[in-house]
Structure prediction request, 178 residues.
Amino acid sequence: MFTPALDRWETEPELLGRFDVDDIATEALLFQTGYLTVKHIEEPMLGYRLYTLGFPNQEVETSLNHALLPVLGLENAPRERKTLFTYLRAHDLAGLEAHLKALYAGLPHDWYRNNPIARYEGHYASVFYSHFAALGVNVTVEDASHHGKVDMTVDFAGHLYLFEFKVVEQLPEGSALE
Prediction:
């Protein structure tokens, strides 16, 4: 799941009302537990409704990302958030770069062995997004303007940090971190 997409998840109303403990759709679970709410209702044709779900507020988004970080491989999330906050507050780009490299280096290797997830940009973007969103900072993903599109923008204390994610398969393993 691409975690930034949770704030603009489209679904049909029937999926939100269906509740089968053994087979519940992710959007239904997040909706019924209050992590997502209906942000927009569209009726593209008579009798067919499409709901756009999103976080009810930043506190809920932060809370969910706190819960997701251990699942994404951040075992010591509170310490990692404190370190991230320290580098952002000091506008220490070298420290921020080292922190983010260490963040990925700390993800369990078994997640990538015999698993194609490492080939997908969305995986890396989800880890970044959840790490910053759990801190409660303003994060914008896939931000498009007349200049182009940036994968992720972090707005912290009047400073904008721009992130572009690329997975390059032709390079030797680990080259993306150099």
Q: What stands out?
A: The chain is about 40% helix and 25% strand. Residues 3-54 form one domain. The longest helix spans residues 121-135.
